[in-house]
Amino acid sequence: MTLRLGIAAGIGLFLAMIALKNAGIVVANPATFVSLGDLSQPPAIYALLGFFVITALSYLRVTGAVMIGILGITVMAMVLGHNEYGGLMSMPRRLRLPLWRWI
Asked: Three-state DSSP class for 83?
């Protein structure tokens, strides 16, 4: 049981590090490998705000707290112009396969 909890914690910390890097909260540093990024940038502000919204909704035992938090922060970013709507489903912009050149 201890190994299972350790593996789950390791995977969770790995995913958290990726999320913090993508939000700009954690940046690369040659001396210490990681350091604190610029928290005044919109992605970092939205990530921190989303974390606090999800935490508050979970504390209040709201069903679907994570989904409500993600959708709420996404809509707020769209309204404020920091995120663009690409449709419900779309192809990546830079995907270029050699096969598609002849079609």
From this structure: coil
pLDDT at 101: 57
Q: CA 46 → CA 60, 68, 72, distances in Å?
A: 21, 14, 10
Q: Enter the tokens of residue 75.
A: 């809509």
Count of CA atoms in the C-beta half-sphere (13 A) of 40: 0
Q: Total domain count for the chain?
A: 1
| pTM for this predicted structure | 0.77
98 within a domain of the structure (yes/no): no
The per-residue pLDDT for range 9-65, each reduced to its tens digit, is 999 999 999 999 999 999 999 999 999 999 999 999 999 999 999 999 999 999 999
Alpha carbon distance 5, 14 (integer Å): 14
The span from the CA of 72 to the CA of 66, in Å, is: 10
- Whether 93 is covered by a domain: the verdict is no
Asked whether residue 78 is assigned to any structural domain, the reply reads yes
